[in-house]
Amino acid sequence: MKSVKSDGSSQLRGTASSFQKAAPYINISYVLIASMAMLGVLGWWLDDQFLTKPLLTVLGILGGLFLGLYNLYKVVKKLEK
Question: What whole-number distance in Å separates Cα of residue 32 and Cα of residue 62?
Answer without folding.
Answer: 11
